[in-house]
Amino acid sequence: MTATAPDTAPATAPEAIIADARERIDALDDRIIGLIQERMAVSAVVQQTRIASGGRRVHLSREMEILARYRDALGKPGTALAMTLLELSRGRI
């Protein structure tokens, strides 16, 4: 009888599953970043239009609606996320 090399684990081991999931996360992050950039551009249009018509750049009651929407959907961390989005979108004009 000849000795054979031990079988190696297939590439579908946990490492491969993790690598695939990380690729999906990276792709999702790319989409999220693109959507945030699009949101910032749309917010700039709203701000410019509001200022041009004699209004204020920031509409606080609208920001409160956004904060509540994110909080309701994602809990307390959603509020922090919404604050970050609002900060990214303010004063870019």
Automatic annotation (TrEMBL):
Q: Which EC main class describes this enzyme?
A: isomerase
Q: Which Pfam families match?
A: CM_2 (PF01817)
Looking up SUPFAM superfamilies in the UniProt record yields: Chorismate mutase II
Name the Gene Ontology molecular function terms of this record.
chorismate mutase activity
Chorismate mutase domain ranges (all copies): 12-93
Tell me if Oxidoreductase is a UniProt keyword of this record: no
Q: Which organism is this protein's natural source?
A: Streptomyces tricolor
Name by which UniProt lists this protein: Chorismate mutase
Task: Provide the E.C. number(s) assigned to this enzyme.
Answer: 5.4.99.5
UniProt entry tagged with the keyword Ubl conjugation: no
Question: Which NCBIfam families does this UniProt record tie to the protein?
Answer: CM_M_hiGC-arch (TIGR01808), PRK07857.1 (NF005894)
Keywords recorded for this protein, A-Z: Isomerase
InterPro entries per UniProt: Chorismate_II_sf, Chorismate_mutase_highGC-bac, CM_dom_sf, CM_II_prokaryot
